[in-house]
Records
---
Amino acid sequence: MPLFETVFQEKPAIVMEIGSAYTKIGFCGEAHPRFILPTEIESIRDVLKKTEKNLYDQAVDFFNKIFFDYLLVSPKDRKVSFVESTITTPTLIRESFAKVLFHHFEVASILFLPLHLVSLSTLAIDTALVVDIGYKEAVILPVFNGVQILKAWQAQPLGGESIHDGIKASLILNGVKDEILSERVIEDIKVRTCFVTKQARAVAHRNNESIQPCPDVDYPVDGSDVIKIPGNLREFALEVLFPEDNDYLGLPYIIIDAIIKCPVDSRKELAENILLIGGTSSMMGIKSRLRDELRTLIKSEFYMDRLYIDDVKFHNAPSKPNFTGWLGGSIYSATDLISNSITRENYLKHPKIPDWIFYDGSSTRNQG
Amino acid sequence: MEICDTYYSKDEFVETASGNKVNRQTVLCGSQNIVLHGKVIVDKGAIIRGDLANVRTGRYCIISKNAVIRPPFKQFSKGVAFFPLHIGDHVYIGENSVISAASIGSYVYIGKNAVIGRRCVIKDCSIIEDGAILPPETTLASFMKFTKEGKIEGGQGTESVPPAMLDLMVDFTKSFYEHFIPSTH
Amino acid sequence: MSRNENKVKIMPKAIVCEDCIIQGDVTISSGCVVHPSAQIIAETGPIVIGENCIIEEYAKIHNRIQPESPDKPHILTIGPNNIFEVGSVIEASKIGEKNIFECKSFVSSDVEVSNGCVICAGCHLSGGQHLLENTVIFGKHCQQREALDRISGSHMLQLDFLRKILPNYHHLRKAKQ
Amino acid sequence: MDFLISQNYVNYVCQCGLLKPLTNLYFCRHCLNLRCSFCCHHEVDSHFCRNCLENIPSSEAKLRKNKCNSCFDCPSCSFSVLSARATTIQVPMTVKEKQEGEESSTTTSEASSGKMVAKKMYYLACLACRYSSRDVGISDQASQNFCWPEQEYMHANRFNTILNYYQALVLHDKQVKQDEKRRKTTNKSKFQSMTDRTGLNVSAIRRQMGFDKTVSKPKNKPASILPSMTEEVEELSEDIFTKPINLKNITTIEQRFTQPANQPESVKHLYPQHKNLSIKRSIRCRHCEHNVIKPEYNPTSIKYRIQQFASSHVPEVRIIKCYPLMPNKSAFITLKLTNPTMNDMTITIMELPTDDEEVMMIDEMKKNFESLTVSSKSSLMRPSLIEDPRIVSCKPTAKLELPDSSFVINQRDDSAEFDDEIQTDKKDPKFVIWRKANKIAIELSITPNDLKVNDEVIVGFTMHYTYSTVPSTTAEKKDSQQRHALNARVYLNVGNIVDYSTK
């Protein structure tokens, strides 16, 4: 690793991916993030939430923690790369981050990297259907020959949050007290007991056929209570990602929708290059379930004659799904391409961050 | 806020020549092994286990109600031994706290209901929050704060521990002692 | 209360410091060490403490389980080789052997503790639990884990040391059957 | 009793507009202004391990990825540090020991080969949750500090190949571009920059895919990597439907994230983690670039090389007592003021600025700063930015009757510390209750606004004080001492409105 550091730059750039639940931080050119910690900016988890401190102050506190408690570097004159879901990150948030980093921490430059696109660099491919299932939502974006097909973009609020809500509601129905079911407890129940079941069993469950449920679990909560997690909840809590209703907005449907919005000649390649990223896609069994669901769908009457694809194939990134995006940023920032960042000088001249709508080449391009 | 006067009844406390004020209802086991270096307040119900090993405190220490100061033991292949426990100057130990540290530096604030596990080393100018639990053999560096949540935070130059902790603790323990006065009746 | 005091049975070779509070029908088996300011209160039924237990300062063992019928009180039996550290509060219904209750831990009356368990400092345990063998309860949220490799052996050595040291500094209660 | 909370009854306004207790503020001697950690610049000064308290030079810290070599965190409970435990085991004598043994004894080597000796072995154990390195199958080590087996990262090789590939690709792409420039072939389309920016440098990949035929294939084109797509997908094991799970063996998400690389799901893969280092930081004023805090390198030292605490420059205000507060009724508060400096101070208590005045102050400050940076702007220095000053968020809820004259607090005199004598000076104005060395107690009258029961009563004032700069070096003459008149805005939380109906 020191080799790259000396060859390319003295101080490795800081790479961050600030997700709605967890933040991944580390240095470029490294194979995994140094830390994964809960995102402590409330406005990101819940944009509408009224908080005492404004976004700027919260971001200052959080970045202070990142730089001085975790990464242990002086942010001054450092390069920073952000991996972010370009389309769904509110402008307010990215502009606040830029302001905090340039004003308060005086970083040298910031590079905003589109999550879906850089994820591909972990596989050294340039065409893939990237499915990001995070905490707040699932965002699907096809990338073909290195170009994001924006018109095929799909997003639905299917992610950790909706699973948590489901688990909580169902436990309360079973008579568990509301106050002991904190977000932390629910997440722990999800992570340690729940899984994505097989398609056949899910269908049987939906049709109210009797199936042998998986074993119940006695779950101790904070030493004060023991609650029973029914086998049904363990098995079917994640079915919220696969709703079967007339809206057809379940995960498999929106994946197919994304493919169908792409040109016919790119579909086959996209379907054979599916990349699952995001924290929720580390749930046990989700990949095999998605494959089964997708296979059923492409063979269904409705899609048979429209889709023209025969199979789906998945990629295995050299990472855990929850930091694949970060890893892409790490690889990207380790190359010379980091010189395309917005520099502090340029930012101070034009305090504006380019995005999809507003693009001013002058602020990103260095001469040359 | 200026510290209010704390009144105690003269019958309850013994004042030594060096200015230590020790409540009569404390349990000082093996008092020949306990050295209080002057102007130390030991409040009601506090236990100092000098019988297990030596206990030494510096000047201007405050040991609040029901605190237990207990030298730590260590196991060897041939047996166990209790180790002496040293406490520096200007240390405040809150109510109901259990102290089994190997050493506590100076200018340390320990909140109430804290547990300091066996053979911990607490360095100068640190804070232990109310109800914090330090696992055995933890080292708490200077200007660090051990929180209720079990995390170590702070460091020189952060707001978790005031940068002027030294002056603050000197002032606090001194004025606590000065305002700890016998009631007049 | 004086009537109850007489019910305290201290077996020979147990070391019980004078200034601890023992109330009700309490049996302390041989080899136990009870430090000063410990409390053992048999309120609703007898307490039987097994051999070689250590009960430290401000530890409180309290039997307050309401008996099902007045003539059949619940007996709190505590197995041998347990350690009750400073400030622990134990109201459990049953305790096996070789358990450690660390400083300021709390075990409520609906908890049953088997053998070889550790309740870490500051953990509060309640809510109808039955701890399996070698369970460790740790952390702020009372996480559970199974101890595969117990650090043991210090217990007897510590007892030996205490038995040697304590009589030099403390008045002890006389053993009586 | 809890002094950590009680401090916050008296807050000072930092120049940036935030309210902080005096102990958390700094005083920049060069700007003669209050600073706080928010409006100053932080820098990493030195790295150290907060467990073994060893200073680690920053280059070494970087090399070790900010981890301590010898200390390990418990992967199971994350808040405690693993300690090495010694055990003695019986091992057969090694050759070397055998030779030593031969020297001392006359027995033949054949006979002693079956002899066992006690050897000290170490393993790591957590004293809180009883985790031990044996739990995860790490064998005991002969040495206490080093050689704990490092965990391998399963994707490390694949990652390195990909990284090398990209770095070569980008480098290669750059060369191609330069070649083009030299040949002055204008091959640029105006759409290229758009896609360039978004990611993988499309042109590079297109070329590699063979789309762009105009570019001649250059010499060292990196070999592409085989795609990793598979039809094989990890199937859900059937066991999950039938076998009960043991929660104690499944890691929590917190435990997983202690090892971000592998994120083990089973407690059997929780390996000891090297402890993350901590830092000492120095804090710098953004206005004048001078340090307000610079600590010593030694991790155990509590001293500073530079320390500019506000509490040693600005008079400290404390509330001694306050009479019961009722709406619209005047009450007395007693304040204690302490002069921490070696010079006498003259203090005048004045009204807080009005909102308009505050805005004007902020504007002026901004202007001053701009003129400062413009004038001192050298070609090399990048302009430093200040935090936008804010309007104080706290509004007083009571009116303070200002004392009619100013007063003097004596200088600090360490020898007078043991004087307990309370001095009363006849010349002092009436509101001064007593004096003691460098302390003075004053009594002021406040009238709370029309508040409800239990509302907080907040009063504020501007404290105008004289400050003398001490010559920073002994070489400077004594008469270089300068007197300044400074202001500090102070907000006091004097208590809550009492319910007078119950009285």
---
Amino acid sequence: MDLTEPAELAAFRGEAREWLRSHVPGTPLPSLDTEAGFAAHREWELEMYDARWGVVTWPAQYGGRDAGLLEWLVFEEEYWGAGAPVRVSQNGIFLLAPTIFEYGTDAQKERFLTPMAKAEEVWAQGWSEPGAGSDLASLRSKAERVPADASGAGGGWRLSGQKTWSTRAVFADWMFGLFRSDPDSERHRGLTYFLVPLSADGVTVRPIRQLDGEPGFAEVFFDSVFVPDEHVLGGVGEGWKVAMATTTSERGLTLRSPGRFMAAADRLVELYATTRATDPGAAAAARGDVAQAWMDADAYRLYVLGTALKALGGESIGAESSANKLFWSQLDVALHETALAMLGERATLEADPVAGPWLDGYEFSLAGPIYAGTNEVQRNVVAERVLGLPR
Amino acid sequence: MDLTEPAELAAFRGEAREWLRSHVPGTPLPSLDTEAGFAAHREWELEMYDARWGVVTWPAQYGGRDAGLLEWLVFEEEYWGAGAPVRVSQNGIFLLAPTIFEYGTDAQKERFLTPMAKAEEVWAQGWSEPGAGSDLASLRSKAERVPADASGAGGGWRLSGQKTWSTRAVFADWMFGLFRSDPDSERHRGLTYFLVPLSADGVTVRPIRQLDGEPGFAEVFFDSVFVPDEHVLGGVGEGWKVAMATTTSERGLTLRSPGRFMAAADRLVELYATTRATDPGAAAAARGDVAQAWMDADAYRLYVLGTALKALGGESIGAESSANKLFWSQLDVALHETALAMLGERATLEADPVAGPWLDGYEFSLAGPIYAGTNEVQRNVVAERVLGLPR
Amino acid sequence: MRLAPDADALEFGASVRELLSDVADAAALRVAWDDPAGRIPGVWQRLAEAGVLGLTVPEEYGGSGADLTSLLPVLVEVGRAALPEPVVETLVGAKLLAEAGGEVAEDWLPRVVAGEAVVAVQLGPGDLVSAAPWADLLLVPDHAGVLCAVPRDEAVIVATTSVDGGVRLATVDVPGGAGYALGGVHIDAAFDAAVVAVAAQQTGLAEAMVAMAVGYAKTREQFGAVIGSFQAIKHQLADAYVANAFAAPVVARAAWSVAQDSPTRSRDASHAKYAATVAAQRAARTALQVHAGIGYTFEHDLHMWMKRTWTLSSLWGTKDWHRERVAQAVLER
Amino acid sequence: MRLAPDADALEFGASVRELLSDVADAAALRVAWDDPAGRIPGVWQRLAEAGVLGLTVPEEYGGSGADLTSLLPVLVEVGRAALPEPVVETLVGAKLLAEAGGEVAEDWLPRVVAGEAVVAVQLGPGDLVSAAPWADLLLVPDHAGVLCAVPRDEAVIVATTSVDGGVRLATVDVPGGAGYALGGVHIDAAFDAAVVAVAAQQTGLAEAMVAMAVGYAKTREQFGAVIGSFQAIKHQLADAYVANAFAAPVVARAAWSVAQDSPTRSRDASHAKYAATVAAQRAARTALQVHAGIGYTFEHDLHMWMKRTWTLSSLWGTKDWHRERVAQAVLER
């Protein structure tokens, strides 16, 4: 066992902390769910990209630092600890990029990665459909073959159908998602992974206001939208396999970095301290829950670190990602419920400088047990794949 | 709304309290799971019967007081509040008797009720089988017809099979239970409700030591045990319907009277007071849980009172009994966990005068979510019968 | 004995339920949420005509002088409808005015009964006054802590925005000399009455959210079956139902204790708010989890019920505050 | 970096697992439970031969002088087997003797390593000394609070009975002048080491109980299907698994903090005991509910694992005590 941070890692941490300290906006950026806020977040991504802090895990040739898992965890700790903005590019850089690196052609890498990293092109997800939520394999949006002309050019697909719960889609430029390319196929078969410009003819984006009233996600309608063959990621009909790479990473280490919860837990500890002065009774009642929330955030940090070290040791990460999602989504809700309990009558005041951010955080935390596979589905996965119980 | 206790009810309460104060054994009786303890509990029942406190809800002609639901609730509050012994006869007087009153012949009433009330004959239950627990309808113990002789006498049934989790059976005299009288029947059909003397030829009782190491229940084996027709309760093949009367009351109001939990909650409050003196930290940590346990016991008392008043008002009590069982079984476990938390290192000392009884109570509480239909089954019942969700 | 409101009270509650489903359905609620005023036009008048606003007003002032136990069914319906109207505040305020009697009562109570005046009250812990921005008359403590009746134009009302578009919260300051000091009022009893009234609303909210989730679970299909057929959904909903089923009688008993001014009045009121808050919060969490994505949207109605749950949980004393008040009564006795 | 014991420590743990499944299976446990001595004949000697008892003893005394991180796999196995042997007490006691050095160490440590002497220790909160009735040497505070090494015949040992037939608890009194005062010992560090060692045992217990329940759920049929196919069972077991999966790295980190005598040593040790206690208690409740009736019997093995869970939860500081110690460290900083 050895938990001493290696010198290089500590140096990396110091460099990141230093840069963040001097560059993180002093005042929070406007909401990502507004046009102005979205633009401001793009600028922040560009600023990070230029300093090579935007995509630290990517190869240097694409603006990264070839950072390993540990550096990534360290960077995330520093990033959230510094109170830096949410990542407008996260769908692309954390979810799509790993898939492109694994399945993309050289042309696709050249075409998509750098604009993605610069947030010139922001990506939305196209997984869920009105009839396919937890049961993603039941999706029905279809892709019809468009043959190439005599010269062999113009070959591609026409996409039709509807996607929903597409985060960031309101202001995003591109979407990645699954479509049924074999009309006779069922479930996981006959699906293909497409990259679609949201500016294409036939694409309609309808914003959906989420719990907080902001258009955090959208429905996206496809009315026979043409996509050339170059925008198929991985093989035709291979969509499910290709997508799993993404959803695995989505549910796994890169979906929710521990740094986020440690930062929230530290803020909770500060709230406890101030509450103890203003409302000792509320603080006393919450004391145990505050300690528990802090411990859970710390436990999550350690679990992810342990998993990362295993992965670096060559072990494969499997259903850990489901256990992972169950744990962080529950700790996030409990942590925010504890904060709201201490805030007392101020808990729902969205304009209150103290309560407002906690309320936003609570609303955001409530999505945790739902998206990226509901916790009910995750429990099935743990029971069946980890414990070996029958389907 | 009117929650004032009527004068007659208050008088009844006073009379019960007075009698219990002067008759409840000063020192606890030896364990019901020992031969001596069982005998001592029989004597206590007889003493209560002689004073007409044994079966207050029964008609006077059988030694009762024709007491209504409210008197019964009041009596139970006083009984447990006085720290009186557990009821060795409870299977009979609370579970079987209501069924006999509803379905029994006059001869059966004459034959069985008085010895039951005097605890001269203690009854065990014969529901579960090794293969039929939560899924009671899958029971396989069978009853084969024995035709009457030419004179019309000697008609009856031969019982074969095995029953298990039969509480009190080790020292009990009789068993009531279900047997499959139609070999071609399935599930709920073709069952008959029998009354069987455990002294009959072919009956073997094998004690099962429960969690606390005591033989609290038993397996009972039937090797073609003859039972005359007079010992069939209700119609042949009507067993399920007849049994439901019992299991409904079992899960309903009479299984766990609120008085029990109020008494336990009051003891918990006392434990909190003493703990605050000896281990302030433990008391402080448990303070919220103690208040919650007391509130839950009080809520259970009110819910049962409300249900009883509804029943008296002519409304039918249905799946309330499942909600009931979920609530009391969970509050009982939580209440005892809170006590053990305050007892700290003494929690597992079975000989400790303070900790011992709490430990016994905890072990007993752990059976709550399991017997009389597991809580998983109860949640299905609530979801399907109360909320109308599909099977 | 009876642990339920009387038949006529239940009947009255049923009629109010009908009225509200008529004039204050989810669509009307949305309009109110988007409206700066935050109320449903006309509903207040309809409540007055139905006699709701005079429930706590003695007959001499044109009301029906009912006690809290008779109000329960109406309050449950106000909760079930997630109604954005100051019913509890006005009913509790009217009772205080009647206790004070005299000119202030004669001036205001008939207008309250007629639906021409909204009353807001500041009682118990906390600085926020619910419904103050809507109020024509505020019953708030002056700097000396004496409860005063203050017409809105004499008070300094600083409104703040809640995530719940159906409530209006504010801090209220009473300039020296403003208002009219109220004598002979039972402030603690009024607070307990408000607490129980809110608890009743919470049980109505919980019922509504469980019903919404059950309805959705019966129709939404995934994996080739309605999700209501999955144990994971069934058991969550069963637990939510049970929590609320056991809160209801606690609330009823508390109403009785308040009506009787029983020695356990405050303990019972706090027990009611605690139990009803736990039940409503559980119902909200469960309903959201069952609805999943669709429940997380602003388009779906659920969020209005959830947010009402959040505000009622945070106002009139949190569940921790009330649990501690019960602990004081039970453990320090 | 590495958040897991080294390969050789894991290998050693595996060998101990094999040894215990061999000489200390459930059948052997039952014999020990029914035996007044409460131990499994021969196992202590086998543990000595395997080198387990010398793990914390410096090489100069014939041990291997390993640190706590290397002990983890063995301790998890001791938990998985619900072993009724004073492993933790003896290992922690040996470390203290080595710190004291001198004659007492020379006298006792070789005998400990050889499996000829059991050591019990009284550290931290509480009056009960675990394993005292089995101990040849007791490390307990005298009336002045100084930790002393007291041979069993010089101590007054009052044994008490636990529901857990695999432990022996007692209060120990040291008559004036008895025993040998230990200098240079790190009592607080030793307590934290014991706490983490117990937490490691608890994770082993939890793993064993979840495994038992999973095994049963795969074979037990009701309603025409194995109960492990029902979501109600699956989800309970998944939650129990997750709780323990997240406790394990917390325990590992705490072992490192103890081994390094890090400034967060006590906080991390308490976090470990808290998390492992919650996980083990959850596993016990879940395993019982999944087994239902059969799990409630003395004939079934489960109860021995449940009761060990109860004793380890109550000894070496309860989860409330440890949570408060974490709160002190995190909230009062």
